[in-house]
Amino acid sequence: MKADKYEKISALARRRGFFWPSYEIYGGVSGFINWGPLGSVMKRRIEDKFRDIFIRRLGLYEIETPIISPEVVFKASGHLESFREPMVECGDCKRRFRADHLLQEFADLPSQETDRMRLAEIKGAIEEHGIRCPDCGGPLGEPKYFLTMFKTTIGPYSDVVGYGRPEAAQGIFVEFRRLYEQVRERLPVGFAVIGHALRNEISPRQGPMRLREFTIIDLEFFIDPESPGCPLLKRVEDETLNMVLAENRLRGSEEPVKLTVRDAVARGYIKMEWQAFFMALAKRFLEELGVPDEKQRFIEKLDWERAHYSTQGFDQEVYLDRWGWVEVSGFNDRTDFDLKGHMRESGEDMRVFKTREKPKVRKERILKPVIRNIRRDFREEMGRVLNLLSKTRPEEIEKHLKEKGYFMLGGFRILPSHVKFEERVTEEKGRRFIPHVIEPSFGSDRLTYVALEYAYTVKDGRVILRLPRDIAPVQLAVLPLVQRDGLPEKARGIYEALIEEGFTVEYDEAGSIGRRYARFDEIGTPICITVDYETLKDGTVTLRDRDSWKQVRTGVKQLPRLLWDFFRFKMDFTGLGSPVGEKS
Amino acid sequence: MKADKYEKISALARRRGFFWPSYEIYGGVSGFINWGPLGSVMKRRIEDKFRDIFIRRLGLYEIETPIISPEVVFKASGHLESFREPMVECGDCKRRFRADHLLQEFADLPSQETDRMRLAEIKGAIEEHGIRCPDCGGPLGEPKYFLTMFKTTIGPYSDVVGYGRPEAAQGIFVEFRRLYEQVRERLPVGFAVIGHALRNEISPRQGPMRLREFTIIDLEFFIDPESPGCPLLKRVEDETLNMVLAENRLRGSEEPVKLTVRDAVARGYIKMEWQAFFMALAKRFLEELGVPDEKQRFIEKLDWERAHYSTQGFDQEVYLDRWGWVEVSGFNDRTDFDLKGHMRESGEDMRVFKTREKPKVRKERILKPVIRNIRRDFREEMGRVLNLLSKTRPEEIEKHLKEKGYFMLGGFRILPSHVKFEERVTEEKGRRFIPHVIEPSFGSDRLTYVALEYAYTVKDGRVILRLPRDIAPVQLAVLPLVQRDGLPEKARGIYEALIEEGFTVEYDEAGSIGRRYARFDEIGTPICITVDYETLKDGTVTLRDRDSWKQVRTGVKQLPRLLWDFFRFKMDFTGLGSPVGEKS
Predict the structure, then answer these.
(1) Rounded average pLDDT over A230-242
(2) Which architecture does CATH list for A358-430?
(3) ipTM for the complex?
């Protein structure tokens, strides 16, 4: 079996403080992890990168809403009904299992089939295949649905049920009316939440890939369904996406086709332009986290794979050493499903009013009865005649009168003298409607693990974490060459100065310089600054590049400006000084 | 009654998007709020300021741990036992009330008294004062304790109980062993968690001051109790603190005394130097959030007011218009209480080993019996003699022999010939001990509200939010003077350029320039950039200062560098250009 990167990275992550399972001293509780001194900083830098690309640069907004919500929220959202998994319990040992997983494992049924089974069908299949408890061989009971949300009680009254949010989106939908007013009633407009979410998985895998508590990044983008166009699309239309299309999957092929964003939209593979735009941004986002194009793909979900609120959905998948293709984000067209649900449950009007640039003009023919003549000709039948006239399309009457000179209406002979025709012009100033929602959604725990795996490289038998410089947890290390002759004091001074400048810096004097370089390569520190005897003479230091191990020499005075350019504007390392060896 | 700032700020916060109660469309659920498009950014900037002052600059660490913990964690921490409030239920209407609050309200008992009452005493007091249900007048039942933690179940087995963390500290204690190894076994060392916490309050007040879900900032700082000194103390020793001391409170005075950090430590008012250091940093932190010295104080908690884990505790309080003095942070000496608890419950050794710089040398006198002579003189009594000798301090025997030439031991006459004395030297290389913990703890929701209240000012009948520039949610606004003649296009270009530079910028062309200035004053935007006809000619723009309403003129090209200096290095506004009116 080939080396498993997940094992190696987990070991490194645990030893150096990126991530590890929670509560190990109590035997562990699966589905929970910690992000350590290095991991939490890296994870936050990734979240900040999302903020920069998807929020600040697009002029969208972030909000923060509670994790605990009252039950009605998930009644409206459909989660109470749909956020559940089929479960069976063993009659003897009482252990519980995912019923669909048992059928996949012991009856070789594909998930595409089990995903679509009802409880009765599941029960039937279990009996048919004579599946018993995998642990004790006991009989399996009635399949039941298990609601995979964490349930609790709000306040001292045990009848106020609350749940931990399985997604952050609902916090945005519930508050949509107020948010819409706060941003002065603009469409399109987007709101994001970055925060913890809870899913009470029946049997979560270990590690950061499937968690019971994780950080979700939900961006809900509200549009007018009558003007769904994305003016920003041209910024990304030449970007290519590797797409596994539903039509091909139904034919049994998971082979991706490479399409430009332009084609994917033009040929109708991605129905909403904004969906395509966010997918393109997401591809670039992952590239900036170190995942190359060929290790990314977008898989279109089949009807029975999509969440209950989605009409078209894509998962962005990244190839990982242990698990193969793994979802890192999802893109769903949620239409007006959620706002409608909250409108229904709360009675609050979730519609917005939009004035048309130029009012819509409607012309219609209307019929005016000539009462005097009608009374004269029909007497006491007048009422019935007027009633019948009001029920008939004016255009029809007018047509007959023009053609034949009369119109038979329920036995009455209507003549041109009985009616006049006029044109009425009406103007519609605007319309009320429920906005539709395009949703990109990421999991930042997975993103952080993915960035770690793609940064993990081995050079001369040593681990180097080639993290993109803007997500590396420690930016700089200041190292005195030796622990004597005033070098530590000098190095401390430079350390303090760089801290003052706002960098994330570590000072380290323990062990040989080689061992210290190795230590910082292993946690992905882009640059080591070495203070040596030269420094005391001419105030220059050695900068060492993590990836190339190249070294340049530069003056301490120029450090802050140079390093800002290096980190903020991605300036090339060789631009930081003169190659060591040459005169500086 | 004087104007209530809380009302005004809440109205502004709701209208412009700082904060408002959650779930209003469902009638609201008290104890939960949202942070909106402006509030969430401001709150995060405040948390980032904490990170800068308490973590990055001190070389401490941040970690991220789960909100949901298994029950054993809170058994170890003592919360299952202590994190509760006395509650009574009405026999008729079944409503529930805080028993201690009823006694305070209807029996005029001070909280200092009710805080110390046991359930039996509470019951007695309720009967004695004939207190009945405030709602329906019904009889009140047995007082019970209500556990104010949110309870849930982890996984499909309903016997695995979990709780939402009421503080983030335990996530650090549980993982201490691993964290300690990750930072290469250094002491002192500190770890912080910034994240949501849950407290199932029986009757929370509205607004951001008392919440059921809130953001806690817990910093757990681990020290060696044998070397509790704080080498950084000198950085803050001249800082003055307004302190309300326990000894004065016991005498009935809540008057603060002004002490320098140096005196507060020297005179033993603050027992731990690190505690004093963090309190001084916290004072500066609040000053940077806009709260002047005279509106801050530190109140020492009395024995029965302190949390169950604390031996000395101070609350940092800030004066607020509606509530008077309100806690914004707490400083507790948690000793080894928590690590001990987890060591007890998990069996995991929480002790650290510390080698002494120079081994501790212990010298002792030891007595060596001269067997030959003892046998000769005491024969079959030898055993008893040896036994008696082993039970007697060598120094005592030696002293008598020196003085009197013999020593009477249980009837036996011991002579110099029976014993020899030697000196034994032993070395202790190091010691094992459980670190002690100093904890500063903040609530960032409160901090954010406090910053809003202190920024709230009225000038010429208009609201200006004088937020410190580094926590203002929107840094810059770009405004074309009019909506024609190419000014909007020019302004858009400048907006895009500033976005590229990394600033948080808004573009606004709606309404008169005066109304737009007012709009940005109201949300605390430090600088408005106005694009006018001059701009088209000479490429200069007008910068307007939020607080002074002063205006300066400067070239678009210089903007990025100048604005970075303004925001990062607090450069004075007048330094940004030449006063409008003069030649530029």
Answers:
(1) 97
(2) 2-Layer Sandwich (3.30)
(3) 0.88
